[in-house]
Write a structure and sequence with these properties.
alpha/beta, 600 residues, 50% helix, two-stranded antiparallel sheet, globular
Length: 600
Protein backbone atom coordinates (compact mmCIF):
# COMPACT_ATOMS: atom_id res chain seq x y z
CA UNK A 1 0.00 0.00 0.00
CA UNK A 2 2.83 2.32 0.89
CA UNK A 3 4.48 1.41 -2.38
CA UNK A 4 1.29 2.35 -4.19
CA UNK A 5 1.26 5.68 -2.42
CA UNK A 6 4.82 6.43 -3.44
CA UNK A 7 3.99 5.34 -6.92
CA UNK A 8 1.11 7.82 -6.99
CA UNK A 9 3.37 10.56 -5.64
CA UNK A 10 5.94 9.66 -8.27
CA UNK A 11 3.34 9.82 -11.01
CA UNK A 12 2.17 13.22 -9.75
CA UNK A 13 5.71 14.45 -9.65
CA UNK A 14 6.29 13.22 -13.19
CA UNK A 15 3.05 14.89 -14.35
CA UNK A 16 4.15 18.24 -12.92
CA UNK A 17 7.48 17.87 -14.66
CA UNK A 18 5.67 16.96 -17.87
CA UNK A 19 3.36 20.04 -17.71
CA UNK A 20 6.32 22.28 -16.91
CA UNK A 21 8.18 20.83 -19.88
CA UNK A 22 5.17 21.35 -22.15
CA UNK A 23 4.84 24.94 -20.92
CA UNK A 24 8.52 25.61 -21.64
CA UNK A 25 8.24 24.03 -25.08
CA UNK A 26 5.05 26.02 -25.75
CA UNK A 27 6.70 29.34 -24.84
CA UNK A 28 9.65 28.57 -27.05
CA UNK A 29 7.27 27.58 -29.83
CA UNK A 30 5.31 30.85 -29.61
CA UNK A 31 8.51 32.84 -29.46
CA UNK A 32 9.62 31.10 -32.63
CA UNK A 33 6.27 31.84 -34.27
CA UNK A 34 6.42 35.53 -33.26
CA UNK A 35 10.01 35.92 -34.45
CA UNK A 36 9.10 34.16 -37.70
CA UNK A 37 6.08 36.41 -38.27
CA UNK A 38 8.07 39.55 -37.53
CA UNK A 39 10.79 38.35 -39.90
CA UNK A 40 8.23 37.56 -42.62
CA UNK A 41 6.55 40.97 -42.26
CA UNK A 42 9.92 42.74 -42.21
CA UNK A 43 11.02 40.90 -45.34
CA UNK A 44 7.63 41.55 -46.99
CA UNK A 45 7.69 45.29 -46.31
CA UNK A 46 11.36 45.49 -47.28
CA UNK A 47 10.62 43.79 -50.60
CA UNK A 48 7.56 45.99 -51.08
CA UNK A 49 9.57 49.14 -50.31
CA UNK A 50 12.35 47.97 -52.62
CA UNK A 51 9.81 47.16 -55.32
CA UNK A 52 8.17 50.57 -54.89
CA UNK A 53 11.58 52.22 -55.04
CA UNK A 54 12.37 50.41 -58.28
CA UNK A 55 9.10 51.60 -59.81
CA UNK A 56 9.74 55.13 -58.54
CA UNK A 57 13.19 55.18 -60.15
CA UNK A 58 11.75 53.68 -63.33
CA UNK A 59 9.08 56.38 -63.54
CA UNK A 60 11.63 59.05 -62.72
CA UNK A 61 13.78 57.84 -65.62
CA UNK A 62 10.75 57.85 -67.92
CA UNK A 63 9.93 61.40 -66.86
CA UNK A 64 13.46 62.52 -67.64
CA UNK A 65 13.30 60.86 -71.07
CA UNK A 66 9.91 62.44 -71.77
CA UNK A 67 11.09 65.94 -70.84
CA UNK A 68 14.15 65.48 -73.07
CA UNK A 69 11.79 64.50 -75.89
CA UNK A 70 9.70 67.62 -75.20
CA UNK A 71 12.86 69.73 -75.43
CA UNK A 72 13.70 68.15 -78.78
CA UNK A 73 10.20 68.81 -80.07
CA UNK A 74 10.53 72.48 -79.11
CA UNK A 75 13.89 72.71 -80.86
CA UNK A 76 12.40 71.20 -84.00
CA UNK A 77 9.36 73.49 -83.93
CA UNK A 78 11.37 76.65 -83.31
CA UNK A 79 13.81 75.77 -86.11
CA UNK A 80 10.85 75.37 -88.48
CA UNK A 81 8.94 78.48 -87.41
CA UNK A 82 11.69 81.06 -86.92
CA UNK A 83 12.03 83.22 -90.01
CA UNK A 84 13.69 86.63 -89.70
CA UNK A 85 11.70 88.00 -92.64
CA UNK A 86 8.37 86.98 -91.12
CA UNK A 87 9.14 87.44 -87.41
CA UNK A 88 8.27 91.12 -87.64
CA UNK A 89 4.65 90.02 -88.20
CA UNK A 90 4.57 87.82 -85.14
CA UNK A 91 3.97 90.69 -82.74
CA UNK A 92 1.14 92.02 -84.90
CA UNK A 93 -0.50 88.61 -85.14
CA UNK A 94 -0.45 87.77 -81.42
CA UNK A 95 -1.93 91.16 -80.44
CA UNK A 96 -5.02 90.80 -82.63
CA UNK A 97 -8.36 89.89 -81.00
CA UNK A 98 -9.77 86.56 -82.15
CA UNK A 99 -12.40 87.99 -84.50
CA UNK A 100 -9.88 90.24 -86.26
CA UNK A 101 -7.35 87.43 -86.60
CA UNK A 102 -10.07 85.17 -87.96
CA UNK A 103 -10.99 87.71 -90.64
CA UNK A 104 -7.37 88.16 -91.71
CA UNK A 105 -6.96 84.39 -92.00
CA UNK A 106 -10.13 84.05 -94.05
CA UNK A 107 -9.14 86.84 -96.43
CA UNK A 108 -5.59 85.54 -96.86
CA UNK A 109 -3.79 88.44 -95.16
CA UNK A 110 -2.10 85.82 -92.97
CA UNK A 111 -1.67 82.12 -93.66
CA UNK A 112 -2.40 79.43 -91.08
CA UNK A 113 1.30 78.59 -91.03
CA UNK A 114 2.27 82.20 -90.27
CA UNK A 115 -0.21 82.44 -87.42
CA UNK A 116 0.87 79.11 -85.97
CA UNK A 117 4.54 80.14 -86.16
CA UNK A 118 3.75 83.41 -84.36
CA UNK A 119 1.93 81.65 -81.54
CA UNK A 120 4.46 78.85 -81.18
CA UNK A 121 7.20 81.44 -80.70
CA UNK A 122 5.10 83.64 -78.39
CA UNK A 123 4.02 80.64 -76.30
CA UNK A 124 7.60 79.43 -75.96
CA UNK A 125 8.80 82.90 -74.96
CA UNK A 126 6.11 83.47 -72.32
CA UNK A 127 6.44 79.93 -71.01
CA UNK A 128 9.94 80.75 -69.80
CA UNK A 129 8.53 82.93 -67.02
CA UNK A 130 5.44 80.96 -65.93
CA UNK A 131 5.97 77.31 -67.00
CA UNK A 132 2.40 76.98 -68.30
CA UNK A 133 3.06 74.45 -71.08
CA UNK A 134 3.52 70.70 -70.69
CA UNK A 135 4.50 70.04 -74.29
CA UNK A 136 3.98 71.36 -77.81
CA UNK A 137 1.77 69.48 -80.26
CA UNK A 138 4.32 68.82 -82.97
CA UNK A 139 1.61 67.52 -85.33
CA UNK A 140 0.25 71.09 -85.52
CA UNK A 141 2.92 71.94 -88.11
CA UNK A 142 1.55 69.39 -90.56
CA UNK A 143 -2.07 70.31 -89.77
CA UNK A 144 -1.41 73.99 -90.62
CA UNK A 145 0.08 72.95 -93.97
CA UNK A 146 -2.92 70.78 -94.78
CA UNK A 147 -5.49 73.53 -94.21
CA UNK A 148 -6.87 74.92 -97.43
CA UNK A 149 -8.11 78.49 -97.62
CA UNK A 150 -11.14 77.43 -99.67
CA UNK A 151 -12.54 75.91 -96.47
CA UNK A 152 -12.16 79.15 -94.55
CA UNK A 153 -15.75 80.27 -95.10
CA UNK A 154 -17.10 76.99 -93.71
CA UNK A 155 -14.68 76.61 -90.82
CA UNK A 156 -15.43 79.09 -88.02
CA UNK A 157 -11.99 78.66 -86.44
CA UNK A 158 -9.95 78.33 -89.64
CA UNK A 159 -6.23 78.56 -88.81
CA UNK A 160 -6.75 79.54 -85.15
CA UNK A 161 -4.15 77.99 -82.78
CA UNK A 162 -5.82 76.60 -79.65
CA UNK A 163 -4.10 75.60 -76.40
CA UNK A 164 -5.47 72.45 -74.78
CA UNK A 165 -5.40 71.35 -71.15
CA UNK A 166 -3.27 68.21 -70.82
CA UNK A 167 -6.04 65.91 -69.60
CA UNK A 168 -7.87 66.27 -72.95
CA UNK A 169 -6.81 63.45 -75.27
CA UNK A 170 -4.83 64.20 -78.42
CA UNK A 171 -3.74 61.33 -80.67
CA UNK A 172 -0.10 60.38 -80.08
CA UNK A 173 0.11 62.00 -76.65
CA UNK A 174 -0.46 60.75 -73.08
CA UNK A 175 -2.82 62.23 -70.49
CA UNK A 176 -0.81 61.84 -67.31
CA UNK A 177 -2.57 63.39 -64.29
CA UNK A 178 0.92 64.73 -63.57
CA UNK A 179 2.12 61.17 -62.94
CA UNK A 180 5.02 59.63 -64.89
CA UNK A 181 3.41 56.17 -64.65
CA UNK A 182 0.89 57.22 -67.33
CA UNK A 183 3.42 58.40 -69.90
CA UNK A 184 3.14 55.03 -71.67
CA UNK A 185 -0.62 55.37 -72.09
CA UNK A 186 -0.52 57.07 -75.48
CA UNK A 187 -3.92 58.07 -76.82
CA UNK A 188 -4.93 56.57 -80.15
CA UNK A 189 -7.91 58.86 -80.72
CA UNK A 190 -8.63 62.55 -80.23
CA UNK A 191 -11.20 63.56 -77.63
CA UNK A 192 -14.52 64.46 -79.26
CA UNK A 193 -14.00 68.15 -78.56
CA UNK A 194 -10.62 68.01 -80.34
CA UNK A 195 -12.21 66.31 -83.34
CA UNK A 196 -14.86 69.03 -83.56
CA UNK A 197 -12.28 71.82 -83.16
CA UNK A 198 -10.21 70.35 -85.98
CA UNK A 199 -13.31 70.05 -88.18
CA UNK A 200 -13.74 73.80 -87.71
CA UNK A 201 -10.15 74.49 -88.78
CA UNK A 202 -8.69 75.06 -85.31
CA UNK A 203 -5.13 73.87 -84.64
CA UNK A 204 -4.34 72.40 -81.19
CA UNK A 205 -0.73 73.57 -80.72
CA UNK A 206 0.29 73.25 -77.05
CA UNK A 207 -0.87 71.23 -74.03
CA UNK A 208 -1.07 73.15 -70.77
CA UNK A 209 -0.24 72.44 -67.16
CA UNK A 210 -2.46 71.46 -64.23
CA UNK A 211 -2.17 70.25 -60.60
CA UNK A 212 -1.32 66.63 -59.89
CA UNK A 213 -4.55 64.53 -59.92
CA UNK A 214 -6.44 67.70 -61.05
CA UNK A 215 -7.88 68.28 -57.55
CA UNK A 216 -6.21 71.46 -56.33
CA UNK A 217 -6.41 75.25 -56.53
CA UNK A 218 -2.66 75.30 -57.06
CA UNK A 219 -1.11 74.37 -60.40
CA UNK A 220 1.90 72.09 -60.03
CA UNK A 221 2.90 68.47 -60.42
CA UNK A 222 6.10 66.46 -60.12
CA UNK A 223 6.25 65.72 -63.84
CA UNK A 224 6.04 69.20 -65.40
CA UNK A 225 6.65 71.41 -62.37
CA UNK A 226 4.88 74.47 -61.05
CA UNK A 227 2.99 77.07 -63.10
CA UNK A 228 3.34 80.60 -61.70
CA UNK A 229 0.75 83.33 -61.60
CA UNK A 230 1.51 85.70 -64.53
CA UNK A 231 1.06 88.80 -62.34
CA UNK A 232 2.73 87.63 -59.12
CA UNK A 233 5.08 84.60 -59.37
CA UNK A 234 4.72 83.94 -55.63
CA UNK A 235 1.07 83.13 -56.16
CA UNK A 236 -0.95 80.46 -57.90
CA UNK A 237 -2.63 80.90 -61.30
CA UNK A 238 -5.44 78.73 -59.94
CA UNK A 239 -6.43 75.18 -60.64
CA UNK A 240 -6.96 73.03 -62.28
CA UNK A 241 -6.89 74.82 -65.66
CA UNK A 242 -4.12 77.12 -64.40
CA UNK A 243 -1.72 76.57 -67.31
CA UNK A 244 -4.42 77.69 -69.74
CA UNK A 245 -5.21 80.84 -67.80
CA UNK A 246 -1.57 81.87 -67.33
CA UNK A 247 -0.68 81.34 -71.00
CA UNK A 248 -3.74 83.20 -72.31
CA UNK A 249 -3.15 86.10 -69.92
CA UNK A 250 0.40 86.55 -71.26
CA UNK A 251 -0.70 86.38 -74.89
CA UNK A 252 0.88 82.98 -75.56
CA UNK A 253 -2.50 81.63 -76.63
CA UNK A 254 -5.52 83.34 -78.12
CA UNK A 255 -8.00 80.60 -77.19
CA UNK A 256 -7.93 77.61 -74.85
CA UNK A 257 -9.98 74.64 -73.73
CA UNK A 258 -10.13 73.73 -70.04
CA UNK A 259 -12.17 71.48 -67.79
CA UNK A 260 -14.20 72.31 -64.68
CA UNK A 261 -15.22 70.07 -61.77
CA UNK A 262 -15.28 72.45 -58.80
CA UNK A 263 -14.41 75.78 -60.44
CA UNK A 264 -11.41 74.59 -62.47
CA UNK A 265 -12.10 76.99 -65.36
CA UNK A 266 -13.60 79.88 -63.39
CA UNK A 267 -11.04 80.00 -60.57
CA UNK A 268 -7.97 80.33 -62.86
CA UNK A 269 -9.85 82.94 -64.94
CA UNK A 270 -10.55 84.86 -61.74
CA UNK A 271 -6.93 84.63 -60.58
CA UNK A 272 -5.31 85.50 -63.92
CA UNK A 273 -7.80 88.03 -65.22
CA UNK A 274 -9.21 86.28 -68.31
CA UNK A 275 -12.60 84.98 -69.51
CA UNK A 276 -14.00 81.45 -69.25
CA UNK A 277 -17.22 79.45 -69.47
CA UNK A 278 -18.31 76.32 -67.57
CA UNK A 279 -21.10 74.74 -69.57
CA UNK A 280 -23.93 72.49 -68.48
CA UNK A 281 -22.37 69.02 -68.31
CA UNK A 282 -24.24 67.57 -71.32
CA UNK A 283 -23.82 70.62 -73.56
CA UNK A 284 -20.32 69.67 -74.75
CA UNK A 285 -18.80 66.19 -74.91
CA UNK A 286 -16.32 65.03 -72.29
CA UNK A 287 -15.60 61.80 -74.15
CA UNK A 288 -11.83 61.28 -74.29
CA UNK A 289 -11.09 63.51 -71.29
CA UNK A 290 -9.17 62.03 -68.35
CA UNK A 291 -10.59 62.54 -64.87
CA UNK A 292 -9.18 62.04 -61.40
CA UNK A 293 -12.08 59.74 -60.46
CA UNK A 294 -13.50 57.99 -63.56
CA UNK A 295 -17.09 56.93 -62.97
CA UNK A 296 -17.78 59.71 -60.48
CA UNK A 297 -20.83 61.41 -62.00
CA UNK A 298 -22.57 62.75 -58.92
CA UNK A 299 -20.78 66.09 -59.44
CA UNK A 300 -20.06 66.11 -63.15
CA UNK A 301 -16.93 67.46 -64.77
CA UNK A 302 -17.42 69.54 -67.90
CA UNK A 303 -15.35 71.21 -70.59
CA UNK A 304 -15.37 74.82 -71.75
CA UNK A 305 -13.60 77.62 -73.62
CA UNK A 306 -11.18 80.18 -72.14
CA UNK A 307 -10.12 83.37 -73.87
CA UNK A 308 -9.33 87.08 -73.86
CA UNK A 309 -12.90 88.37 -74.30
CA UNK A 310 -16.53 87.29 -74.32
CA UNK A 311 -16.72 87.30 -78.13
CA UNK A 312 -14.04 84.59 -78.24
CA UNK A 313 -16.08 82.34 -75.95
CA UNK A 314 -19.26 82.93 -77.98
CA UNK A 315 -17.50 82.13 -81.27
CA UNK A 316 -16.04 78.94 -79.77
CA UNK A 317 -19.45 77.78 -78.52
CA UNK A 318 -20.93 78.49 -81.94
CA UNK A 319 -18.14 76.43 -83.53
CA UNK A 320 -18.55 73.52 -81.09
CA UNK A 321 -22.35 73.22 -80.91
CA UNK A 322 -22.76 71.58 -84.30
CA UNK A 323 -24.23 68.22 -85.41
CA UNK A 324 -20.79 66.58 -85.51
CA UNK A 325 -20.56 67.02 -81.70
CA UNK A 326 -23.66 64.97 -80.98
CA UNK A 327 -22.96 62.53 -83.79
CA UNK A 328 -19.62 61.66 -82.18
CA UNK A 329 -21.20 61.60 -78.71
CA UNK A 330 -24.97 61.00 -78.72
CA UNK A 331 -25.12 61.76 -74.98
CA UNK A 332 -24.62 65.44 -75.79
CA UNK A 333 -27.84 67.48 -75.99
CA UNK A 334 -28.29 68.45 -79.68
CA UNK A 335 -28.64 72.18 -79.10
CA UNK A 336 -27.06 74.55 -81.65
CA UNK A 337 -25.74 77.90 -80.48
CA UNK A 338 -28.65 80.31 -79.91
CA UNK A 339 -27.38 83.54 -81.48
CA UNK A 340 -30.72 85.27 -80.90
CA UNK A 341 -30.42 84.93 -77.12
CA UNK A 342 -26.77 85.98 -77.14
CA UNK A 343 -27.40 89.06 -79.30
CA UNK A 344 -30.65 90.09 -77.58
CA UNK A 345 -30.98 93.55 -76.01
CA UNK A 346 -34.07 92.69 -73.96
CA UNK A 347 -33.73 93.93 -70.34
CA UNK A 348 -33.23 91.14 -67.83
CA UNK A 349 -33.93 90.65 -64.14
CA UNK A 350 -30.64 89.62 -62.54
CA UNK A 351 -29.95 88.55 -58.98
CA UNK A 352 -26.75 89.47 -57.15
CA UNK A 353 -24.96 88.53 -53.96
CA UNK A 354 -21.50 89.07 -52.47
CA UNK A 355 -21.91 86.76 -49.47
CA UNK A 356 -23.22 83.22 -49.79
CA UNK A 357 -24.09 82.83 -46.10
CA UNK A 358 -21.19 80.46 -45.49
CA UNK A 359 -17.78 82.02 -46.22
CA UNK A 360 -17.17 85.77 -46.45
CA UNK A 361 -15.63 87.08 -49.66
CA UNK A 362 -12.83 89.63 -49.27
CA UNK A 363 -13.63 93.35 -49.65
CA UNK A 364 -12.07 93.40 -53.13
CA UNK A 365 -14.26 90.54 -54.33
CA UNK A 366 -17.35 92.22 -52.92
CA UNK A 367 -16.39 95.44 -54.70
CA UNK A 368 -16.07 93.53 -57.99
CA UNK A 369 -19.69 92.38 -57.69
CA UNK A 370 -20.79 95.96 -56.96
CA UNK A 371 -18.99 97.17 -60.11
CA UNK A 372 -20.58 94.42 -62.22
CA UNK A 373 -23.97 95.34 -60.75
CA UNK A 374 -23.55 98.98 -61.79
CA UNK A 375 -22.42 97.92 -65.26
CA UNK A 376 -25.55 95.82 -65.72
CA UNK A 377 -27.76 98.63 -64.47
CA UNK A 378 -26.08 100.93 -66.99
CA UNK A 379 -26.97 98.34 -69.66
CA UNK A 380 -30.65 98.64 -68.69
CA UNK A 381 -31.08 95.53 -66.54
CA UNK A 382 -32.92 95.24 -63.22
CA UNK A 383 -30.78 94.00 -60.30
CA UNK A 384 -32.35 92.14 -57.39
CA UNK A 385 -30.75 91.07 -54.11
CA UNK A 386 -30.49 87.29 -53.87
CA UNK A 387 -29.04 84.77 -51.43
CA UNK A 388 -28.44 81.15 -52.47
CA UNK A 389 -30.07 78.59 -50.16
CA UNK A 390 -28.12 76.53 -47.60
CA UNK A 391 -24.65 76.89 -49.11
CA UNK A 392 -22.91 75.39 -46.08
CA UNK A 393 -24.99 72.23 -46.48
CA UNK A 394 -24.52 72.18 -50.28
CA UNK A 395 -20.77 72.60 -49.96
CA UNK A 396 -19.81 70.50 -46.92
CA UNK A 397 -22.52 67.82 -47.00
CA UNK A 398 -23.03 67.38 -50.75
CA UNK A 399 -20.44 68.87 -53.13
CA UNK A 400 -17.23 67.64 -51.50
CA UNK A 401 -18.52 64.30 -50.11
CA UNK A 402 -20.09 63.38 -53.47
CA UNK A 403 -16.93 64.36 -55.35
CA UNK A 404 -14.88 62.23 -52.95
CA UNK A 405 -17.54 59.59 -52.33
CA UNK A 406 -14.86 56.90 -52.04
CA UNK A 407 -12.98 58.92 -49.44
CA UNK A 408 -10.32 59.84 -51.98
CA UNK A 409 -9.18 56.25 -52.72
CA UNK A 410 -9.28 56.67 -56.49
CA UNK A 411 -7.30 59.89 -56.32
CA UNK A 412 -4.69 58.32 -54.03
CA UNK A 413 -4.35 55.36 -56.41
CA UNK A 414 -2.89 57.67 -59.08
CA UNK A 415 -0.01 58.47 -56.72
CA UNK A 416 1.14 54.89 -56.09
CA UNK A 417 4.93 54.68 -56.74
CA UNK A 418 4.87 58.42 -57.54
CA UNK A 419 6.39 61.37 -55.74
CA UNK A 420 3.66 63.63 -54.37
CA UNK A 421 3.73 67.28 -55.31
CA UNK A 422 4.38 69.51 -52.26
CA UNK A 423 1.23 71.55 -52.92
CA UNK A 424 -0.85 68.37 -52.65
CA UNK A 425 0.75 66.76 -49.59
CA UNK A 426 -1.65 68.14 -46.97
CA UNK A 427 -4.65 67.04 -49.02
CA UNK A 428 -3.11 63.62 -49.67
CA UNK A 429 -2.34 63.21 -45.96
CA UNK A 430 -5.94 63.97 -45.03
CA UNK A 431 -7.40 61.66 -47.70
CA UNK A 432 -4.97 58.78 -47.10
CA UNK A 433 -5.68 58.71 -43.36
CA UNK A 434 -8.09 55.84 -42.55
CA UNK A 435 -11.69 57.03 -42.85
CA UNK A 436 -12.63 56.06 -39.27
CA UNK A 437 -9.79 58.28 -37.99
CA UNK A 438 -11.06 61.17 -40.17
CA UNK A 439 -14.50 60.75 -38.64
CA UNK A 440 -13.01 60.70 -35.11
CA UNK A 441 -11.04 63.85 -35.98
CA UNK A 442 -14.25 65.49 -37.14
CA UNK A 443 -15.89 64.81 -33.78
CA UNK A 444 -12.88 65.85 -31.67
CA UNK A 445 -12.16 69.07 -33.58
CA UNK A 446 -15.77 70.27 -33.94
CA UNK A 447 -16.04 72.10 -30.55
CA UNK A 448 -13.11 74.45 -31.22
CA UNK A 449 -12.77 74.51 -35.04
CA UNK A 450 -16.00 73.59 -36.82
CA UNK A 451 -14.78 74.53 -40.35
CA UNK A 452 -11.82 72.16 -40.08
CA UNK A 453 -14.18 69.53 -38.64
CA UNK A 454 -16.44 70.11 -41.66
CA UNK A 455 -13.44 69.55 -43.92
CA UNK A 456 -12.56 66.20 -42.28
CA UNK A 457 -16.20 65.15 -42.52
CA UNK A 458 -16.44 66.17 -46.17
CA UNK A 459 -13.29 64.32 -47.31
CA UNK A 460 -14.46 61.17 -45.52
CA UNK A 461 -16.76 60.50 -48.44
CA UNK A 462 -20.08 58.63 -48.30
CA UNK A 463 -20.55 55.87 -45.69
CA UNK A 464 -22.52 53.36 -47.80
CA UNK A 465 -24.79 52.95 -50.81
CA UNK A 466 -27.88 54.03 -48.88
CA UNK A 467 -26.14 57.21 -47.75
CA UNK A 468 -24.98 57.80 -51.32
CA UNK A 469 -28.53 57.58 -52.67
CA UNK A 470 -29.71 59.89 -49.91
CA UNK A 471 -27.02 62.42 -50.85
CA UNK A 472 -27.97 62.17 -54.54
CA UNK A 473 -31.61 62.76 -53.62
CA UNK A 474 -30.61 65.73 -51.43
CA UNK A 475 -28.66 67.13 -54.39
CA UNK A 476 -31.77 66.97 -56.58
CA UNK A 477 -33.85 68.59 -53.86
CA UNK A 478 -31.25 71.34 -53.49
CA UNK A 479 -31.32 72.03 -57.24
CA UNK A 480 -35.13 72.20 -57.15
CA UNK A 481 -35.00 74.52 -54.14
CA UNK A 482 -32.59 76.83 -55.98
CA UNK A 483 -34.71 76.88 -59.14
CA UNK A 484 -37.85 77.54 -57.06
CA UNK A 485 -36.19 80.57 -55.44
CA UNK A 486 -35.10 81.85 -58.86
CA UNK A 487 -38.67 81.44 -60.12
CA UNK A 488 -40.13 83.27 -57.11
CA UNK A 489 -37.79 86.21 -57.74
CA UNK A 490 -38.32 85.96 -61.52
CA UNK A 491 -34.57 85.83 -62.12
CA UNK A 492 -32.99 85.35 -65.53
CA UNK A 493 -29.43 85.12 -64.20
CA UNK A 494 -27.30 85.74 -61.11
CA UNK A 495 -23.94 87.46 -60.54
CA UNK A 496 -21.67 86.72 -57.57
CA UNK A 497 -17.99 86.26 -56.68
CA UNK A 498 -16.20 83.57 -58.69
CA UNK A 499 -13.96 82.86 -55.69
CA UNK A 500 -13.80 84.40 -52.20
CA UNK A 501 -10.34 85.98 -52.63
CA UNK A 502 -7.71 86.95 -55.21
CA UNK A 503 -5.01 84.46 -56.22
CA UNK A 504 -3.73 82.66 -53.11
CA UNK A 505 -0.11 82.27 -52.19
CA UNK A 506 1.49 79.16 -53.69
CA UNK A 507 0.89 76.10 -51.52
CA UNK A 508 -1.98 77.63 -49.55
CA UNK A 509 -4.75 76.00 -51.56
CA UNK A 510 -5.97 73.88 -48.63
CA UNK A 511 -6.23 76.91 -46.32
CA UNK A 512 -8.33 78.68 -48.97
CA UNK A 513 -10.56 75.66 -49.59
CA UNK A 514 -13.59 77.47 -48.18
CA UNK A 515 -13.33 80.09 -50.94
CA UNK A 516 -14.51 77.40 -53.36
CA UNK A 517 -18.06 77.50 -52.01
CA UNK A 518 -18.87 80.22 -54.57
CA UNK A 519 -18.12 78.24 -57.75
CA UNK A 520 -18.61 74.61 -56.66
CA UNK A 521 -22.33 74.75 -55.86
CA UNK A 522 -22.99 75.41 -59.57
CA UNK A 523 -21.12 72.23 -60.45
CA UNK A 524 -23.27 70.41 -57.91
CA UNK A 525 -26.56 71.54 -59.48
CA UNK A 526 -25.13 71.68 -63.02
CA UNK A 527 -25.84 75.33 -63.85
CA UNK A 528 -23.73 77.01 -66.57
CA UNK A 529 -21.45 79.74 -65.23
CA UNK A 530 -18.96 82.15 -66.70
CA UNK A 531 -16.07 84.15 -65.26
CA UNK A 532 -14.78 87.53 -66.39
CA UNK A 533 -12.27 90.06 -65.00
CA UNK A 534 -13.73 93.13 -63.30
CA UNK A 535 -11.04 94.99 -61.34
CA UNK A 536 -7.81 94.55 -59.36
CA UNK A 537 -7.02 94.50 -55.66
CA UNK A 538 -6.41 98.06 -54.43
CA UNK A 539 -4.83 99.64 -51.36
CA UNK A 540 -8.35 100.48 -50.16
CA UNK A 541 -9.26 96.80 -50.41
CA UNK A 542 -6.18 95.89 -48.36
CA UNK A 543 -7.10 98.46 -45.70
CA UNK A 544 -10.70 97.24 -45.60
CA UNK A 545 -9.39 93.71 -45.16
CA UNK A 546 -7.76 94.68 -41.87
CA UNK A 547 -11.03 96.16 -40.59
CA UNK A 548 -12.94 92.89 -40.98
CA UNK A 549 -12.14 90.11 -38.54
CA UNK A 550 -12.23 86.59 -39.99
CA UNK A 551 -14.69 84.44 -38.08
CA UNK A 552 -13.30 80.94 -38.55
CA UNK A 553 -10.52 78.71 -39.90
CA UNK A 554 -11.70 79.04 -43.51
CA UNK A 555 -11.79 82.83 -43.44
CA UNK A 556 -8.52 83.14 -41.49
CA UNK A 557 -6.73 81.26 -44.28
CA UNK A 558 -8.40 83.43 -46.94
CA UNK A 559 -7.54 86.68 -45.14
CA UNK A 560 -3.89 85.69 -44.59
CA UNK A 561 -3.47 84.76 -48.24
CA UNK A 562 -5.05 88.00 -49.44
CA UNK A 563 -2.63 90.23 -47.54
CA UNK A 564 -0.13 91.59 -50.06
CA UNK A 565 -2.35 90.79 -53.07
CA UNK A 566 -2.17 94.37 -54.34
CA UNK A 567 -2.75 94.65 -58.09
CA UNK A 568 -4.02 91.09 -58.58
CA UNK A 569 -7.06 90.54 -60.83
CA UNK A 570 -10.50 90.05 -59.32
CA UNK A 571 -13.36 88.65 -61.33
CA UNK A 572 -17.08 88.05 -61.17
CA UNK A 573 -19.19 84.96 -61.86
CA UNK A 574 -22.34 84.93 -64.03
CA UNK A 575 -24.78 82.03 -63.61
CA UNK A 576 -27.92 80.94 -65.49
CA UNK A 577 -30.27 77.96 -65.55
CA UNK A 578 -29.17 74.70 -67.23
CA UNK A 579 -28.45 74.85 -70.98
CA UNK A 580 -28.65 78.66 -71.03
CA UNK A 581 -24.97 79.24 -71.86
CA UNK A 582 -25.92 81.90 -74.40
CA UNK A 583 -27.67 83.88 -71.67
CA UNK A 584 -24.56 83.65 -69.48
CA UNK A 585 -22.46 84.98 -72.36
CA UNK A 586 -24.99 87.73 -73.07
CA UNK A 587 -24.82 88.98 -69.45
CA UNK A 588 -21.00 88.74 -69.51
CA UNK A 589 -20.97 90.74 -72.76
CA UNK A 590 -23.14 93.47 -71.23
CA UNK A 591 -20.86 93.72 -68.19
CA UNK A 592 -17.79 93.82 -70.43
CA UNK A 593 -19.23 96.55 -72.65
CA UNK A 594 -20.16 98.86 -69.77
CA UNK A 595 -17.17 98.37 -67.45
CA UNK A 596 -15.19 101.30 -68.84
CA UNK A 597 -18.20 103.60 -68.32
CA UNK A 598 -18.67 102.58 -64.69
CA UNK A 599 -16.85 104.63 -62.09
CA UNK A 600 -15.08 102.18 -59.76
Amino acid sequence: MISHLFSAIGLASNSELTFQRIHELGCAHWKLICVSLITIFAVYWSIKAFHSRLWFLHFKKKAKEHLLNVRQHWDHILSKTKNNKKESKHGEITKLPLEQLRNKLRTGVYSAEEVLAAYFNKAYQENQQVNAICEPVIEALEQSRQLRRENAEKQLLYGIPVSIKENISITGHATTMGCAKYLDQIRTEDAVIIQVLKSQGAIPFVRTNFPQTLLSFDCSNTLYGRTKNPIDPARSPGGSSGGEAALIRLGGSILGIGTDLGGSIRIPCHMCGIYGLKVTASRLSTKGIARSSPGQNAVRSCVGPMGRDVASLALTMKALCIPLMWELDPRVVPKPFDAQTYESTKPLRIGFYDYDGFVMATPGCKRAVAIAKRALQAAGHELVAYTPPRVEFAYASLSVPLTLADGGKMMISHLKHESVDPALRSFVLSTSTPIFIRRIMEILIRPWNWPLAKYFGAVSGIRNITAFWQAENAKDEYANETMKRWKELKLDAVICPGFACPAQLEGRGLRCVGACSYPIIYNLIDFPAGALPITTETEEDQKALELVKPRNWFETGIWKSTRGALGLPIGCQVVALPFQEELVLRVMRDIESKLSAVDE
